[in-house]
Amino acid sequence: MVIHKALSADHDVTITETSRRGHATRLAQSAARESFDLVVVLGGDGTFNEAANGLAGTDTALGVLPGGSTNVFARILGLPDDSVDAAGVLLDALAANNIERVGLGSVEGRYFLFHCGVGFDAAVVEQVERRGPWKRWAGHPLFMYAAAETWLRRFDRKTPPLRVLGADGAELTTGFFTVVMNANPYTYLGNRSFELVAGLDLHDPLAAITLEKLDLRTLGPVAAAALAHKPLEGRRNLDIRTDIRSLVIEADPPIPYQVDGDHLGASKRLRFAWTPNHLALLMPLNAKG
User: Fold this and answer.
1) Which numeric CATH code is attached to 2-106?
2) Cβ contact 160:212 at 8 Å
3) What is the pLDDT of residues 193-249, one digit of tens each?
């Protein structure tokens, strides 16, 4: 394996493959207990998330190599899409010992690297995961199909299902879809980033963006502005909060949520928190995060 040869040229490397959901978390926890300096993960955003949950709060650093369908987190860091090229970038960062401690968001104790989506987008992710074998190969067309199907058949667009509450319990807004972000952008469409809170990076507290109405007159302009990297503040039916250290989202009936692109089920109450300097991360020397 080219990547193994490159990494092991100057470092002692042990290779382990994941075999089931949650396995990466347990492997990362084991590496931290054994005082490994670095865990490099070749995979997609879900595997990165699992490894981060195993390494959070430890001194063992996480390095990521893109191997999934979208690779949002790797691209946030400025890594090339090609895993071999990305390995070269990480080796340069390792030679420079470019390891930084970054903040993590969490929802109900599950950490997230870049975002947690609650409501409509999580319902879309659920539909995509039901077509699991197609996710890697169909990519963005599958997400677009799932979004259209969810919009038309699987999501109530009349009654706002969620309430966003501040740290003091006061209601901030109601809506159909909230993204709690640990880093920008929200995702990528092809080579274009979908910017919701420009400048938000892994050292900042969380931001929460809530779509208060789920209609084309609201969604269309917001999506167009996000793709064009235009400011979203002040747009109609859109609530934006920054510098968030804790947050609660309530819903009745239970509302779906996803973490870093993995659907985690549905809940009536979700508690969010931000923990600074909680993950050691191997940063590319050109890192944008």
Assistant:
1) 3.40.50.10330
2) yes
3) 999 999 999 999 999 999 998 888 888 899 899 999 999 998 999 999 999 999 999
